[in-house]
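Why do we care about 3D structure at all? Because function follows from shape, and shape follows, mostly, from sequence. That is the central idea of this module. The next example makes it concrete: a single protein chain, its amino acid sequence, and then its structure expressed as tokens.
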Amino acid sequence: MDRKHFLSSALLAGASLSTVKSWAINPNPSDEPLNSGKYRIPPYLKPGDTIGITCPAGFITKEEIAPSVKLMESWGYKIKIGKTVGARDFTYGGTDQERATDLQQMLDDIEVNAIMCARGGYGAVRIIDKIDFKSFTEHPKWIIGFSDITVLHCHLSRNFKIASLHSKMCNSFPADWSLAEPIQIETILSIRQALAGEALRYTGPAHEKNRTGRAEAVIVGGNLSIIETLTGSHSDLDTNGKILFVEDTGEYLYGIDRMFWNLKRTGKLAKLKGLIVGGFKLKPDDPGEEFGRTVVDIVLEKIAEYNYPVCFDFPVGHQRNNFALKCGVSHIFTVDQNGSSLTSIG
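And the structure:
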């Protein structure tokens, strides 16, 4: 829609200033309506392309990212290190303005083909509304990360329908590749495979509470507490008609229960094509305050009235077996008596 025409129409209709501001934060340059099923997939990387590294959340040193830089260069990529790497403002990788500026420069730089967030932590939600995605929507690129970076995955999905990569970050690369465990190697290499456009197929274990079935749909999701936090905001995740995956760490069982009630009460569980439950590292119940239910119990209670495939213990989350998943890309999700499988088809 022509912006001048939109603003004129809005004023004539008596639209509030907040309505105009909302459009400015969330432009939709595509002619596709926001609730359409069509996502844009950024160009896959080829040798010689550049990966930028920035810190939109927690701080990390240049020494700590050195192993990831070395390995990604061995894959044939150039690396551009942002100004926030090595910067620190208490727990953050620089001030809010420094982190926003660094991310903005990476998004606008047409020489940068993908952006890897150096680590998670906390802070992305503090800067998300400072970012202008206009150039990014004209020249999409892969944004890579997980945990707190779920803010970016959800924002891109909701507002622009542009695919992104949920995966390990610089702080998860082994210091010595020759001494890395097989599962570390597999998960890190899955990042390379995803960025190169290779088909990805992962399997999960058999679980007595898995719900069998098959679905083909776009996959979205990430950290459960972040998804809950974004409810009602401009970054609120739309799950209708999609396969949803969730994971979390450092939460009490009652907190997980509260978050799943949020998903249910906001309709995020009602129209799914499938549900993938990844790793959940929990805080132990306080003595005398035992919750009395497991994560599996919590999930099954909330989805009892729905009918779609569900799997537990899928290899995604705050754990070593955290494989790269292409958010916004269609996948085939199958659950049977032998376990679960997820295969990318885009």
